[in-house]
Amino acid sequence: MKELHKNRLLFAVMVAAFLAAYYLPFSAMPHGHTLTQSLRESFLLLQDYARKHMLLCLIPAFFIAGAIAMFVSKGAVLKYFGSQAHKVVSYAVASVSGGILAVCSCTILPLFAGIYSRGAGIGPATTFLYAGPAVNVLALILTAQILGYDLGIARIVAAVVFSVIIGLIMSLIYRKEEMDRLAGVDADLGDEESPKPLVVNIFYFGSMVGLLVFANWSCPENVASGFFHAVFTLKWILAGIFACVLILVIWLFFSGEELKDWGISTWGYVKDIVPLLFAGVLVAGFLLGSGPDGRGLIPRAWVEAAVGGNSLRANFFASFAGAFMYFATCTEVPILQGLIGSGMGKGPALALLLSGPALSLPNMLVIRSVLGTQKTIVYVSLVIILSTLAGMLFGLFAAAFPADLLGAP
């Protein structure tokens, strides 16, 4: 009873915080002094996050994570992501299943936590964690259309390769620890059956993923035609179809007790992750501002001046700064467009494209709660180092062939 009261109180506090972030007129806060302006920017970023990502991104992701914990057998997770899984299949599935979701660095977190808690190895799990926001098909195509086909192709290739490399390195570094963590899991749970038939799970999870993808489908204002724009005009119809399928599946195949267990499982992820995300968003906004025109504690002019050219310092700074900034899905493209116009080199641009969407300060705080401090530092360091190296190599290529050999959009 005491735990129930505590959960109800926490839920009420979260709802109140969300409503405050959503409705309060933070844009009317005074600005001018650096600290006051930075505080205003932190609340503006939190408001943007609440309005654009909580209802349509995070809440569906939490329900999917809760469903994974309740209705996906550990045997199924171990078959593809466990220590005995075939490595080629394991990492291929992790990179593809993450990439098709088209989610941001925060929305992927409940899904990552779900498969990791069900017995996925740290290698495939971190491949999935990186691939979700980095191997985003829509963002990759928009990069080619808006920033140039050379940057677009380089981003596609590097993101896919990095997702696998990062997973393999994490698996190698923590091989012994992972063997201890998963000791006996394969033997005890490898034959565990799913509570639901396969066809029910396909429609159940497929409808939730479809709802998540199409409800958050975005298209830049300057893209007025083509496949992605056509889907954008139909996004709510498509999302509605998947929502109806989900409701029908739940009505036909789920009992009241199962729905209650699903809710409890979902709440477990919500209460662990949401406070960390909100805290991280506030800090990110305070330091770096709420958008392309925002002014955080760190002046944007410093960022623009530090990412010119193709030096090691410029590429590292772009990777490091991108890792701590928060990018909603596809927003990195117009932000990079402005930075490139201010003198950013192509190498640092690619470095930021590889680290920025995959990481953020809120993202890091939650990863730490799942993996621990050391593994989080190693994971973040791998992303930053690989992004820096890719930026350096691409910058050298761009210097040797200054024209976009593949054509400019």
In short:
By secondary structure, this protein is mostly helical. It has helices at residues 2-23, 34-71, 74-81, 87-99, 108-117, 122-134, 137-147, 149-173, 175-181, 185-189, 198-215, 227-233, 235-253, 256-288, 300-306, 312-324, 332-341, 346-355, 361-371, 373-400.
How would you characterize the overall build of this protein?
The protein is mainly α. It has helices at 2-23, 34-71, 74-81, 87-99, 108-117, 122-134, 137-147, 149-173, 175-181, 185-189, 198-215, 227-233, 235-253, 256-288, 300-306, 312-324, 332-341, 346-355, 361-371, 373-400. It has one domain (36-400). The protein is globular and about 60 Å long.
Q: How many H/I helical runs?
A: 20
How many structural domains in the coordinates? 1
Poorly predicted sequence stretches spanning 5 or more consecutive residues: 405-409
State the shape: globular
Rg is 21 Å
Strand-pairing-aware structural class: mainly alpha
How much of the polypeptide forms β-strand, as a percent range? under 5%
Mean pLDDT over the full residue set: 82
For the biggest sheet, the summary is: none
Distance between the termini: 61 Å
